[in-house]
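Input/output pair, single chain:
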Amino acid sequence: MENFKFWLLYYSMGALGILPWRVLYFLSDIFYVVIRIVGYRNSVILENLRYSFPEKSEKEIRKIRNKFYHHFSDLFVEVIKLHTMSKRSFGKHIVFENIEYPDKIFDQGRDILVAMGHYGNWEWIGAANLVLKHQGGAIYKPLKSKLFDRYMYTLRSNTDGSILPMKTVFRDLLRLKRDGIKYIIGVIADQTPNKNQIQHYTCFLNQKTPVHMGLEKMAVKFNDVVIYARMDKVKRGYYKVKFIPLFENAKDTKEFEIIDTVMKYLEEDIRRKPEYWLWSHRRWKHVTDRSCKSIEKNGGDEQN
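Output:
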């Protein structure tokens, strides 16, 4: 029964993926109207925006929310399009800048961790695997729904990259190193850690924010090069990603320096074009007092 549900979902979405872009974006416009009417996670989105931009008026906040809804609708159909996107199609719709840098690191025989956030269309970032020398891949956190988790896992494999589960990633990277396979692995840095796993807080978007330490721990343990992927939405269905070097010797960094730096870069992107971040995510669900003052007073490793 589970297999039947999966293949029904997969081929149904695949049939939609065959549709031309203009038709998919017409469906996106309809979806946008629907989620605005039903107020999809409206209270979460507005609360997140109000805390993040206390200087903005309520009118400005709601304008950002509406723009986010529109982008979120586009993101939905762009994920569906992964079913049918070819290398040529990816080349038209997402452009990677400064690929010379990761290729240089590859020639040095070193591995790379690419930090990014839930910003723009992070599901398309795997297309980098089609233009870089490294073996590309990404770390993923399984979805609660086994059906949709299997569906997304299958879609994310369409760009020939490695999909590494979060719970086994250290072992997987160790295996790649042991086998002499050079890698460039994407890491979503703005994941929310489980409450009992919080080790560090940073001031992010005007709020005390618990951060997942996986990226920094991996970088330090393996002394991998850390790059930030800055994604810009050029226009509907078109993106640009610039690889920005951050740390070439992670083991020489101070504690929390890597993750704090990555979150600052992500915040810059969000403040520039806030509608492209995932505001519907309950990013501060483990924080009762969102003020950054306690971090400044007691240090980022204090508990909430």
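The beta strands are 94-97, 112-116, 135-140, 162-165, 183-188, 201-204, 207-210, 225-235, 238-247. Residues 2-297 form one domain.
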